[in-house]
Amino acid sequence: MAEPPEYCRDMKRSIIWLASYPKSGNTWTRVFLANYLLNTQKPIPINEVHRVGRGDSLAATYHMVAGRKLDFIRVPHVLTFRHKVLQGIVNNNADINLVKTHNARVTAYGVELIPEKFTRASVYIMRNPLDMVLSYARHYGISHVAAVERITHPDNANLPTETSVAEFLGTWEAHVLSWVKDASWPQVVLRYEDLLDDPETEFVKVLDLMGVPVDPERLRRAIRFSSFDELSKQEEESGFIEKSTVSERFFGKGEKDQWKTDLDPALADIIRDKLGPTMKRYGYLE
Fold this sequence. Notes:
Elements (H helix, E strand, L loop, with lengths): L5 H5 L4 E6 L5 H13 L15 E2 L3 H8 L8 H5 L2 H9 L6 E5 L5 E2 L2 E2 L6 E8 L2 H12 L3 H8 L5 E2 L8 E2 L3 H9 L6 E5 H6 L1 H12 L5 H10 L2 H11 L20 H4 L2 H17 L5
Parallel strand pairs: 1-3, 1-6, 2-3, 6-9
Antiparallel strand pairs: 4-5, 7-8
Helix pairs in contact: 2-11, 6-7, 8-14
């Protein structure tokens, strides 16, 4: 077998993926980590969360790596730069690089989206699709019917924009299964509902995965600073750079079981019918 290039032999596997289907708790997790890791005595501004992590689909990063402005509509061509983008992240030689992703752990156009050679560990956050679909519809400015069609469609994807390259989602079920399957790296799987019920226990799992010491007072403060009341207040006062241009706000109520009053029962039945086995596996079928 041929020897790997020298840069690969010296390269750290430093990426810890913070992965989720859209509107499943990824941003909440990142805000918590920002507040815990930076350990300030007041809440970190939500528009500074990037100080402790980055996304894997930022347009500016792809332009920089390519050395020119890319046409993101040419998705297969843009994907040829993905490993170079990830290599650029790990080249800082840090022990840990937190990277947010909404991509499924799959291969797209022959490109492995979540390559082992860069990966130290992964955190996967899932949410009951009956609730997630309501936030998904609001975020993308579409009807509940359209949102249900998307999260149950095997080719669901986020199309490229001026600020983001394409993201490959698939169905909610396929996305979950891609991330919970066996890997060569340590994995933590969280349910959004468990984060709501017992954030101290659940967020400690992430800190333990990262090898970060847990201080009880610091933990409680970070949870308080990343509460939905705090996040909503900050968004109202200063806006949020990650908010979709077609939605009124990014942070909603953040509650569970809203589907029982807000989702058409016929749509709930479609979701159960198409995503049922994995919903049952993770306690989302009554």
